[in-house]
Amino acid sequence: MKNIFMLISTNIKNNFSSKSVIIIWYGTGLFILAALIALFAILLISPEANRISPDISKLKLYLGIILFSASIIGPGINLSALGATSMIKEKARGNIQSLLATPLKLKEIWLGKSLAIFIPGLIFGELLTLISLFAINYIFYVPTVGFLLDPWIAIMSFLIIPIIFFCIGLLVYLVGITGKPVNANIIAQAFLPIYMNIIIQILIQTAIFDITSWPFALANIGLAVLIMVIVIILKPRLTRERITLSY
Fold this sequence. Notes:
By secondary structure, the chain is mainly α. The chain has helices at residues 2-15, 19-49, 56-93, 95-100, 106-141, 151-178, 181-205, 214-234, 240-245.
């Protein structure tokens, strides 16, 4: 276990060695979230909150969309920026081959590398979600209707979204370490926009799904399970021979 912690720590430091890249990617995430909050605040939240009888369900819905967006920006950007990119560099430098010569097990290398990508994104996403939650509430909601937070919004934003990105991170690194990193890069870059588009279409076109409802949370749990099933199916590929031949 100590070896995994050291591997995670070392890889996090290596991934964040390029300050300019981190500033650009994380700055982009903050800008997108700030623009979304400003748009919702001006067009939807402020007009509704200032009514004589605000619609609580609408205010919860607006808050849910913002928190959902905040929760996926952190891990999503981290996966896109650092996921397969770091793996490509490691393979080019022969770092993976060097690790194969250590006492570390293949599962430990895979898990350690995956967590090194996931943990910073998780922290960034949780912070963005918390900041958004308190900012929206204390600026707009508390003065008129009090502090709002639907339990399904909380579960979705703080628990289910991180689980989904943990699973997709395992898949990305498994594909990259046992095959061509370019394939892992495609998954890492495509997942966030495809996931967002599917969610938007579901919310718009399906009446039974609401971002504050349990069916919506259950559908996302199903997505996490599906990704994990794919990971389990591909896991037998994690062998020294396949990793070595993938170079």
